[in-house]
Amino acid sequence: MLQLQKVSLEIQGDIDFEILKNINLEFHEKKIYVVTGPNGGGKSSLAKTIMGVYNPTSGQILLDGIDITAKNITDRARLGIGYAFQSPPRFKGIKVKELLKMAASHNPEKVNICDLLYDVGLCAQDYLNRDVDTSLSGGEMKRIEIATVLARNLKVAVFDEPEAGIDLWSFQKLAETFKNIHSKYDTTIILISHQERIMELADEIIIMSNGTVSAQSERDIILAGIMNNDSCACSAKCVKGVGQNAECVG
Ligand SMILES: Nc1ncnc2c1ncn2[C@@H]1O[C@H](COP(=O)(O)OP(=O)(O)O)[C@@H](O)[C@H]1O
Ligand SMILES: [Mg+2]
Questions:
Q1: Which residues have CB under 8 Å from 144's CB, separation 6+?
Q2: Ranges for the ABC transporter domain (predicted)?
Q3: Average pLDDT of each block of 10 consecutive residues along the chain (250 residues)?
Q4: Which domains does the chain have, with CATH numbers?
Q5: Ligand 1 center to residue 130 CA distance, Å?
């Protein structure tokens, strides 16, 4: 459904820097993908390239077989590609119900905003008239943002580190929320995350490092690889005297 073919992204500056290198990826309908890997590996840049915030230096992006490489963020949003930010925006003087109505404005008859709030784990009657401001906790704000993404009835929704800035309790609820929406909605979900609980939701896991896809496979295969990767990088002899730090010799 969404394909990236030989996508590279170079940032021009004092020194030209290739952030994404020859990325080939294919995302299918109704699946959950988790993109993980070390900081600086290129995950957020990949998300922004899918969204149209960055246009690739070379390669193609196809949506349902149609080349959307040259389309900007607004065009891609219209085509059904949406992004939820690492730090959710807050709005002055707008209520939760107004925000959701705005998000659902292109298909109002299909969207019931009370159902949306329930789907993200919030009691609609408690939240419809709340202001979208700092009176909402980080976890509540994330749920409302997820609800706005669902209201848009997207083909592809990208969430960049949804776990950022929320406590453990809210995080566990958030993982359940993604599970719930996956079973109820047709949207393909791309989650960028370091969290094992989020990885467990994936149909497929993609590992990015150094601007490349270093592994992509079904969840269980990747998770088994991560769990079993306990071999010692130090092949030399390891010496530790009593009360001393260990030392690699030879
Ligand atoms: N607009 C930019 N200008 C220059 N360098 C950038 C820009 N965006 C990202 N980078 C660099 O590209 C690399 C990948 O960043 P990013 O995609 O944010 O990684 P991740 O999300 O995996 O932590 C990093 O080295 C980062 O500093
Ligand atoms: Mg990032």
A1: 88, 96, 99, 100, 117, 120, 122, 127, 132, 136
A2: 2-235
A3: 96 85 95 94 94 94 96 90 68 86 79 86 91 87 86 88 79 83 86 90 94 89 74 59 68
A4: 2-249 (3.40.50.300)
A5: 36
